[in-house]
Protein: Putative lipoprotein YiaD
Amino acid sequence: MRITNLLLAGSASALLLAACTPVDAPTTTPNQRTKEGALTGAGIGALAGVLTGEGGKDKLDRAVVGAVAGGLIGGAVGANLDRQAADLQARISDSRIRIINEGNQLRVVMPEGILFATDSAAVQPSIQNDLFAVADNLNRYPNTRVEIVGHTDNTGSASYNQDLSERRAAAVAALLRNAGVSGARIVSYGRGESMPTASNLTPEGRQQNRRVEILIIPTG
Structure:
């Protein structure tokens, strides 16, 4: 009995691992994230069935039912993200803006240089049309919540960088709200210099670390 449970749990875990593609890895398969979402959902559903079943056949039956239900839900979420990412990419004009489909959310990475002047939290007019495109996309996909996160490099004091990151995230959030996105869907906060994506030892690395990220997270 215990061996059967371990085999079922192991199979579910294998599905989860198989579904994981590195966040920034290029994909050549159409609807890759849809398929990954289905696999991930199936793995989670199967594992839940293993853990909640009462006996050998019951556990197996629950695992199968859970895998099917989880696969349908995960696939639907993945399909929506695929469509939303494609729609957003078609509307964004600045090629420096990165749209990353992480399977369970979209991450829109906007470099500081296109959003703000140095040490400023005022959104530059030249990028506002792209932010309006983001707002329109959010309004056409209402079943999501939005987290806007500001990041800086480590130049200057940590307290100043934290404050600047918060003000920049709030400025982007305000523009999206003014463009019609419900304020109830949006939260903004800053991470200061605490979450670099590159080394702060080089100018190129510091430039990458100065950014605002818009996280688009499905809610249903």
Notes: Residues 17-30 have pLDDT under 50 and may be disordered. The helical segments are 2-18, 32-52, 56-91, 112-115, 128-140, 158-178, 203-209.
